[in-house]
Amino acid sequence: MLSNLLEPIKQRPRSELHDRGLQPAALAVVYAAIGLILSSCNNDKVEVYHIPKESVDVSMQSETGSLAPPAATDNPAQWTKPDGWNAQPLSEMRLGSFKVDGTNGSSADISVTAFPGEAGGLSSNLNRWRGQLQLAPLSDEELSSVIQRTEIENVPAYLVDFQTENNNPKPARILGAVFQTADRTWFVKMTGPPDLLESQLQKFLDFVRSFHFSSPAAPNQTAPPGTTKPKSTNDA
Amino acid sequence: MTHEVVRWLKPLTSLKLTIICLACAMVLVFLGTLDQVHIGVYEAENRYFKSLFLFWTLPNTGLRIPWFPGGYVIGTLLLINLIAAHVARFKLSWKKAGILFLHSGLILLLVGQLFADIFIDRESQMRLDQGQTKNYSESLYHDELAIIDTSGNDSDRVISIPDSQLHKGNRIALPTDSLEVLINDFYPNAALINPSQLPAANYPHLQLGPMADAVEMERTYKENERNEPAANVSVIQGGNVIGTWNLAAGFPRPMSFDAAGKACQIVLRPKRFYKPFAIQLLHFRHDRYAGTDIPKNFSSRIRLTDPAKHEDRESLIFMNNPLRYRGYTFFQAGFDNNDTTTVFQVAQNPSWLIPYISCALIVFGMLLQFGMHLVGFVKRRMVT
After folding, report:
1. Which residue of B135, B238, B294, B334 pairs with B343 in a disulfide if CB–CB is 3.0 to 4.6 A?
2. From A141-145, B70-74, B135-139, the region with the lowest mean pLDDT
3. What distance in Å separates the CA atoms of residue B117 and residue B97, rounded to the nearest whole number?
4. Are both B145 and B67 inside the same structural domain?
5. What is the domain count for chain B?
C-alpha cells in the first residue's frame, strides 16, 4: 500500500525536478534557521539585570543606616524597636539583632530568628535555651507549666523566663518568645544579666507584642512548608 | 548548481521520510504518555518532546546513548520535508493554491510552536499573601543562584546563575568585578531537618544554622511537589575566597557580604521573572455553595500599579477571567493558607496568535481545495 502511495512520485521524471528552478538561497535560509534554532536551545546563560530597590520596612531599619537586613525583601514580619535598644549588624541567622546597655558595663543581647516549619519542636528548643543557662531539661508537662501562652495577632505565642540557679557564679537570664506562623517558627530571645533583664521586661513584652506577621497562624500542618505546591483551583 | 542542490535535496522531499517521521511521532507520543505517569507532565514534555533525542544511560556510567529521535528532531525533519517538497516539487498554480495555503498553515504552526518553546518559555507563578505586593513571578521548576549588588542608590543589580550551571565543582565567572562563584557541593533536591534528626553525625549534610541542616533527597517528579536544591557556595575575588555559605532554596535567605567595597547578597531561590509593574493582593475569596464544601467561585481582588504607564487600578481575577497586562496573562490557579494566599499562573506568550492564524490558513486551504474540486465536479456533471 505504501509503495502504491509513493508510485506517482517515483514515476516522476528526474528532469521535472531540475526544471523547477530551485532556489539554493531558500534552502540556505531554511538550514541556517534550523541551525540557529538548535544552537540557541541553550537558555542557560548567566543573566544580569537591574531591579528597582526593594523597599525596606522602616521598623526594620537600624540606627546606623548601613545595615541591610538580609531578609528585608521577603521578611514576613515587622516589629517596632523599643527606645534604648541599639540595632546590631545582622549575622547569618539573625533577622533582627539588638543590644541594650545596662549600668556597670553589662549588656543584654536580643535576637530575632526564624526557621521553617516547627524548627525541631518547641520543647527541644526551650530545653536548648535551658541548657545554655546550665539548667536541667524539663519534660513536656513540666515545660507546659512554665510556658505562658498568649496570642499576638491570632498567632500563637509562647513566653518563657529562665534564670540560672542561685548558686551559679555567672548569673544569667533568658526572656524568650516563640511564635508559630503558617510556614515558620519565630524565636525572640533576650539574654543578659538578671537585673538588667528585669528592668527591660516591659520593653521586651512591648517588643513581642509589636510583631506583625503577613502570614497567618499555622494550620495543622503536616508537610514541611514549601515542599508541596498550593492547592489547585482545578482540584478543589 | 541547481542540479546539484536538487540531487542533494531529493532525499529530503521523500514521502517515505514523512511517513517515518509521523510513525516516530506516534511512538514518541505513546512512550511519553506512558512515562508521564512516573515523571510527571513537565519532565515528560522536556525529555520526549522538547529534546533532540531520547537518551539511555549506560548502567554504572554517566554515558548517555541516544536511542530514539526526540520531538525537536522529528518536528524539524517534518518541517524540512514539507518545505523541501514545496520547493522541489509543487508548482505554483491556482489548482494547487488550497494545498499551498494548507501547508503554509502547517509550517507556521510547527515553526511558531518551536520558537515559542525555545525563546519564550516563560510560564511561572506568583504567590501572594493577602496584603502582599510583588513585582516578580517565580518558576515552578527552576531555581537560580542570585548575586545581588545592593550598593546602588535606586536600583539593585542582579546576577542570576541558572540551576543548570549549579553542579559540584563548577566554577562560574561573573560578569562583574572579577568575581567568581565556586559550587563546592550541590544537592538537586534537599530536605531541611533539625540536626537532631540526622541519622549519624557524619551523615552528609549542609549546615544552614544551629537548628537546620539540609540533607540530599531523591529528585521528585510528583505533580504536587517541587525540587528544592541546597548548595555550598564560595565567592572568590582575585583568587581569594570572600566567603562560603550553605544555601537552600527551601529557605531562601539572602546572605550579605562585601565585594570590593560593594554591599552584596547571595541567595539560592526559585528563579524569578521581574515585571515592570507590581501586583498587590487585596482580598481572596473562596465561595462555596450554601451548606456544602463544593467550590462555587475563586477570585482575587488585586491592585495593579505601574508608575511608568501611570496605571493604578483594582482588578478582579477569577476562573476563566484572567488579567491581561503588558503581554502577561495572570490566571487564577490556586490558593493556600486557609484561603488567605492566592496563586496566579503567569503566562507570557507574544506568539499566542500564531496557532489561530495557522488553523485559519489550514481551514481556508482545505475549503479552497475541496471547493475547487466540488465546483469542477459539479461543472462536469452539468455538462454530461
Report:
1. B334
2. A141-145
3. 30
4. no
5. 3
Residue to mutate among A3, A5, A6, A17, with most B CBs inside 10 A, is: A17
pLDDT score for B74: 92
Q: Is A186 a residue whose pLDDT tops 70?
A: yes
Cell of B228: 528544592
**Same domain as B295, residue B246:** no
With 70 as the cut, is the pLDDT of residue B281 above it?
A: yes
CA distance B226 to B224: 7
Query: At B159, which helix (H) or strand (E)?
Result: strand B155-162
User: Which tops the pLDDT comparison, A157 or B223?
Assistant: A157
Cβ separation of B165 and A116 shorter than 8 Å? no
If asked whether residues B326 and B214 sit together in one domain, one would say: no
- Are A89 and A97 in contact, with CB atoms under 8 Å apart? yes
E strands, B39-132, in order? 53-57, 64-69, 124-129
Q: Flag whether pLDDT at B171 surpasses 70.
A: yes
Same domain, B362 and B340: no
Instruction: Check if B114 contacts A (Cβ < 8 Å).
Output: yes
Of B9, B115, B129, the CB nearest to A214: B129
Selected residue of A6, A15, A22, A40 to mutate for chain B interface (largest B Cβ count, 10 A): A22
Residues of B in contact with A224 (CB under 8 A): 191-192, 250
Please state which of the ranges A93-102, A182-191, B88-97, B172-181 shows the lowest mean pLDDT.
B88-97
Q: Give the three-state DSSP class for B160.
A: strand
On whether both B302 and B324 belong to a single domain, the answer is yes
C-alpha grid cell for residue A134? Answer: 546550665
**Cβ–Cβ below 8 Å for B337 and A216:** yes
Q: Are residues B144 and B269 in the same domain?
A: yes
**Interface-testing mutation among A11, A47, A57, with chain B (most B C-beta atoms within 10 A):** A47
Decide if B156 and A70 are in contact by the 8 Å CB cutoff: no
**CB A127 within 8 Å of CB B194:** no
Subunit contact A46:B160, Cβ cutoff 8 A: yes
Nearest Cα residue to A58 out of A41, A75, A38, A79:
A79
Are B48 and B97 in the same domain?
yes
pLDDT digits (tens, 9 = 90+) for B301-329: 999 999 889 999 999 999 889 999 998 99
Q: What is the span of the domain harbouring residue B290?
A: 127-132+275-348
Rounded Cα distance, B95 and B87, in Å: 17
Å between A17 CA and nearest CA of chain B: 6
Which residues of chain A neighbour B119 with C-beta distances below 8 Å? 40
Half-sphere exposure of A143 (CA within 13 A, CB side): 18
Angstrom distance (rounded) from CA B96 to CA B107 = 16
**Domain check: are B332 and B229 in the same one?**
no
Portion 19-48 of B in contact with A at CB < 8 A: 19
Contact criterion met (CB < 8 Å) for A53 and B152: yes
Identify which of A38, A70, A182 has the shortest CB distance to residue B255: A70
pLDDT digits (tens, 9 = 90+) for B124-157: 999 998 888 999 999 988 999 999 998 888 889 9
Provide the terminal-to-terminal Cα distance of chain A, rounded to the nearest Å.
51
Top-confidence residue, A234 or B85: B85
Last residue of a domain, one of B274, B295, B329: B274
- Which ipTM was obtained for this model? 0.75
